[in-house]
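Consortium newsletter contribution from the modelling node. Members have asked for a concrete example of what our holo predictions look like. Here is one, prepared for the pyridoxal-5'-phosphate complex that several groups have been discussing at recent meetings.
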Amino acid sequence: MAVKVTLNPEPVAEAEREKLLEAPVFGTVFTDHMVTAVWTRAGGWEQPELGPRRPFAIQPENAVFHYGQQLFEGMKAYRGVDGALRLFRPDQNAARMNRSALRMAMPQVPEELFRESVEALVRADKNWIPGQGSLYLRPFMFADESFLGVRPADRCIFCVIAAPAGDYFKSGAAGLSVWVEQETTRAAPGGTGEAKCGGNYAGSLHAQTRAYEEGCAQVLFLSADGSGQIEELGGMNIFFVKKDGSVFTPALGTILPGITRASILALLRAEGTPVSEISYHFDELKADVAAGEIAEVFVCGTAAIIASVSRLKFDGGALEIGEPGPLAARLRATLSGIYTGAVEGPQGWSVTVSE
Ligand SMILES: *Cc1c(COP(=O)(O)O)cnc(C)c1O
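And here is the predicted structure:
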């Protein structure tokens, strides 16, 4: 399944690209190329093609517009300290994409097709990696069939695009204010919370709007059963650090199984830090903060890596966590080091892309 490569004959001029790379706002600048692969139920996967980034020609009745059969991944490529191009645990993204695909009744993407598509794009757009940043890669798949019936589409498109990335939050790693949403939820048992699909995000935007009104950058969602169990943010997982140094995070189930989350758990376990995956209620958090038990709260995901939470605001009050803490800073440095090859991570985490 080698990728057919047709380089863009009219790439963005070097001077303009350099200017765009000075301080790219996350998700606003895109590279010269994209990779696409078409799947049909009758014929399976066609050869993936890398070509100039361009619009799709899609009929208004396309299934994806109406019933949202769609999913995506998020990962980053780095230019390492040794000059090599690196991906972080791409096998985990491929595996998660296929778990999402199963849930969304979409075709499995062979790991080789996934890997070769991503690597071909990184190679073609390697000049788009900012000096101090990374190339955010967005593999995604959507139903591409003209029909208004409710059934899994017989034709899908897998695509990878790339966007140069600096710091995700304008404030960098400074403390975030997070809105604790007690009105809407993002995921129910048996629902699609575990799948990385656009619908989960669509459902989170109402709360996100409220969060902005409240001066918060992000939303923390609670469980759909009304018990107030802490789940995760709209697009990031959350960790708590107690004064005694123990660390915990909500257990998997309805939350999105973040690769950053899993990597943090593995790093902490390897160094012997007591860490657990538990069910933790908002009421317990309030009590723990009041008792001075919570030393740090931080959130994590590929886009932002790790960001400290300084304040949790909710209807009727706020919990002050305080300045960004040392564990978040240390983990951020370790992960960033592994991404660029400056720190040796566990076997297989850092994958070099040949140029
Ligand atoms: C992507 C995502 C995360 C973070 O996953 P990473 O693999 O660490 O980037 C967390 N929560 C949600 C809802 C997500 O979509």
